[in-house]
Amino acid sequence: MTTLPAETQKKLGLVIDLDICVGCHACAVNCKEWNTGGHMAPLTDLKPYGAKQQGVWFNRIHSFETQRTDGKPNQTVHFPKSCLHCEDAACVTVCPTGASFKRRADGIVLVDETKCIGCKLCSWACPYGAREYDSDAGVMKKCTLCIDRIYNENIPQRERVPACVSTCPASARHFGDLGDPNSDVSKLVAARGGYDLMPEMGYKPTNKYRTREPHPALGRQGPVPLTQKNQRERVSCIRHFRSFSLRFPPARATACWRSSVFWGLPVCCPPTACSG
């Protein structure tokens, strides 16, 4: 199995503001456009004009309607999801060939296609559904934080950010070194908090999510404490999520993401919607 670096020099990642995201999908489209000719190219599409489109997308946006219990109107929340470049990335340690690895220089998790055997163990290990299997090439692919862009000295400095960040019309996405407390992204997190996705899993995702109004059950300190009841709900969600990820890649377990218990953010559809 593959080992992780003891520490990384940087922690490059994204900060995504859920209060600002309008669900326009511009980030997903620009990600697809850039990476189709980039480091992990091509991003295969299967029957793109058919009734059941499938393809490789590094960035996906899920939209939900919250159910408020405080008397305020329900609201729509758009939730962008891509690789979180976790510090303790299980997708790396489970890889039998060393194809999945984490870079010591910047903390980015990548896949070496020349070593990948398409066993899909990494997709099972990742609870976020961030891995994308290219059935045409027979290898696993994923977000690279546009390494062929952020280090490209042939483009202006201001454009050396991931494609999803450069195209966001609402400036809901931010990129930088989350290991540097003086970086702009670290200051954003410090100013209004930043949530980890499913922190109880222990993978320590680098990417952070910001929201002004967390679910009342979360409080301001973090996710719902583990109890026997919500532990059962979470296990049910994870089982349902992984089942969807393998059988229906475009859907990526949309129903499962609706549980606030599952991912610790302000979407509060009942956990029963995720039972599987």
Describe this structure in words.
The protein is of the alpha+beta class and 276 residues long. The protein has one domain (12-274): Alpha-Beta Plaits. It contains eight helices and eleven strands. The strands form five sheets. A three-stranded mixed sheet has the order 10-1-11. A two-stranded antiparallel ribbon has the order 2-3. The chain has a two-stranded antiparallel sheet with strand order 4-5. The two termini are 31 Å apart. Residues 215-276 have low confidence and may be disordered.
Short recap of the structure:
The protein has 276 residues and is an alpha+beta fold.
| Average of per-residue pLDDT values | 79
Give me the side-by-side strand order of the main sheet: 10-1-11
* Unreliable stretches: 215-276
Order of helices and strands: EHEEEEHEEHEEHHEHEHH
Work out the strand percent.
15-25%
Number of helices: 8
Class based on secondary structure composition and strand pairing: alpha+beta
Number of E-state strands: 11
Described by the principal axes of the CA atoms, the overall outline is globular
CATH names the topology as Alpha-Beta Plaits
* Count of discrete domains: 1
**Largest sheet report:** 3 strands, mixed
At the first level of CATH, what is the class? Alpha Beta
Radius of gyration: 18 Å
Quaternary structure classification: single chain
How far apart are the first and last residues' alpha carbons, in Å? Answer: 31 Å
CATH architectural grouping: 2-Layer Sandwich
Helix fraction, binned, reads 10-25%
